[in-house]
Structure formats: C-alpha cells, structure tokens
Amino acid sequence: RAHSALPHGRSSLPSDMKVKRISKEDIQTLRDHVFGMEQFYVTQVEVSTFGDRVVFRGNMRGVAKGLLQSFEESMEKYGLNERIRLFLMEDPAAPEENKPVFVALPKEAEPRESGVGGSISSLVFLLVSAFTTLGYGIGSFGFTPQFLKDLADGKVEQVVHTLPVSLGILAVMFGHEIGHRAVAALRGIKLDLPFFMPSLQTGTYGSITPLKSFPKSRSDFFDVAIAGPAVGLTMAMVAFIAGLVMTGYGEINEWYPQIPTTLLNSSMLIGAVSKFVLPASVLKGSTLAVHPLTIVGCSGLLINAINLIPVGRLDGGRIVQALYGRIAAGRISSITLFLQVLGAILGNSPLLLYWGLIAVLFQSRPDIPSQDEVTEPNDTRSALGLVALVLMVLILAPYPEAAQQAAQTMQTMQNGRM
Known about the structure:
alpha+beta
C-alpha cells in the first residue's frame, strides 16, 4: 500500500529488468542543484532496494503550481531529463497527511504496452463487438411486423434495413474513441490500442483504452478523460433528437423499427427529451415506430453514460481521479460499485450488472499517476466534470413514471405474498 500511487503499483523494479538505476551522483545533483533550498528543501532521501526509485521528502516553499516544470528545466540544464522522470505527488508512505514529495524514476520506466498479444486481442474484441452490434441492430426490429413477415417469407436481404442502427452505434463509439485520441495527441499523452467490449444489451459497452505514457498534470488527464464522453454524448444526443423529429413530424416507413413506448421512459433524460420533442398523440400507443436514429441516439446515450460511472479506469473514474485525487477516487469507486450492484439487482438491470462485473474485472484499479499529482484542475474543469456526472445520473436514472410503475409492481408483488 505504501507505494500504490507509484507507476505500475510496485515499490521497485525487478532486479532482472534492464532498466538503468538512478546513480548516487544524479541523486546528489537533484538534491543540491535542482531542488536547492529556495523552493523545496530536502530533509530526507529514500532510495529503493534496487535503486530504481528515489523519494525526496522535505519542505515546499511556495505553491506547487509550476514547480515541477521549473525543476524539469533545471534537470535539462544538468542533463538529468534524459535519464530521470520526476513526479510530484502526495507522500505514498502517508497519503492521508497530504504532504507533497518528489519521486524520481528512471526514464525507461513506462506503463506497460499491450504488445503483439494485445494487438491481436484488440482486433478480436473489435470483431466480436461489431458482430454483437449487428445482432443488436437486428434485434431492435423485433417488434416490427413488416420486418418479421419478410423474414418469415425468406427475404433475408431485408436485414439490410437494420444496418443504420448498427453502423450508427459503431459511429458514435468510434467518435468517442477519436475524442480521447485527439485530445491525448494535443496533450502529448500516448494511448494504447482500444479494447471494445461486446454487449448483448446495447451491442457494445464502449472501449477500454489504457494509457501508454504519464500525463503531465491532472488537468491534462482530465481533458483526455472527458473528451471521449463529450464527443460521444453530443453525437448521440444529436442523433436522438433528429430521430425523434423525423418520427414525430416525418413520414413513417413500414420498415421503421417499432419499440415499446415505455422504452422512452427508461431514463429521466431520454424521457424528458422525448416528451418535449414528440407530440403527445404519438406516445399514446403501446408501441411506436421510430426512425432508426432514435435507437442509435438512445443506445449511444446509455453506452456513454455507463462509461461515465465513477469507477476505477472508466472515463468517470478518471474524471474523479483527476478532479479529487487518487484517495478520494478510490473511495468513490468502492461506494459506486456497491450502489451499482445494488441498483442492478433491485432495478432488475442486466446492463448495469454485467457492466459492473466488467468494471470489477478489468477497470476497478486506479489509473497511472500524472507527473504532477498535487496541482488541482481549475474551476472550469471541475464544473465540466460535475456536469458530466450529472448527465450520467440523468441518463441512467429511470423517468419518474417508470420509477412509479416499478414501485407499484413491487408493492403488488409484496401484497401477493401476504
């Protein structure tokens, strides 16, 4: 636990790993010439067993903002930046004290890459996700009489009508991934290959995208984390509203997918937007023929929302870690997982249950640290992060009418037992 905040979550590198150790001369140069006495007066130096990690404890004089950059400029002057990477973080031995320390690692110490096996796995996951998304698109036409009649008559070519749903969902998820990668490139952060997770409920759960390099700051980390959901949610909402407009005011084709009207009440945000855009007369039936973009948008909103759940290395977990720090993020993640499992069981939601299991297995650990873990993001980023988390709740929380119906159903079941 003492070194869990360090890269790779270990206290030192294995002795057989070919990584240059930090020499005594470099340690002395850091202490005497880089840190000096004016900005960070070193009182203790802790060197790991294999000499691959050095913790400098001391007294910081002034504010943390900009201090790491200043020291990196001094390191460049002495040629240390080619051999050493510096981190500013809370003391890993006593994180509850909020006392900043500097940690020096060899330049070669990087987050693990996926390698050839990871590349093959990434491709396999992508193909499986494409298959399940195609299946989800076909399944979304399960209530459409004309589509079912054509299939019964052997007109398998009618499956082509389902492609707009499948391809639309994949487009939203690729947009999400491009958002991450575009901002990561601007911030100088390297991302590994994405691992798209297949889903029977929504076609895909989105992707797991590991980091290949350390973010410079928590602000940079935040920007990369929020960029994907920002793009994905925007694309999904545009598609959803466009689909509702063409459903309510356009010509309804016989091959349009029919969905239970109650599906539009499965979410507070989706239900509110539906009632605002669609005429009341359209929502009176038990089923509703909708433009395919409606399903694309609805599914895209749900997929992006579950990725905003504040757990581990999910986008939401990364946002919370960037805004509130690693300790707070770990506590929020544990509470969220418990509430997610509880909500999935009580609310009979396989989507949240299965995604919770994936999060526990693959994404529950905190992410790698930024080089500056002490300087907090500005108020604008804090506000954006809060908006993203609120949107997540509004999308995943049921519409009041649906919640009331669920409560009445549970009450009826209880009365039946009595």
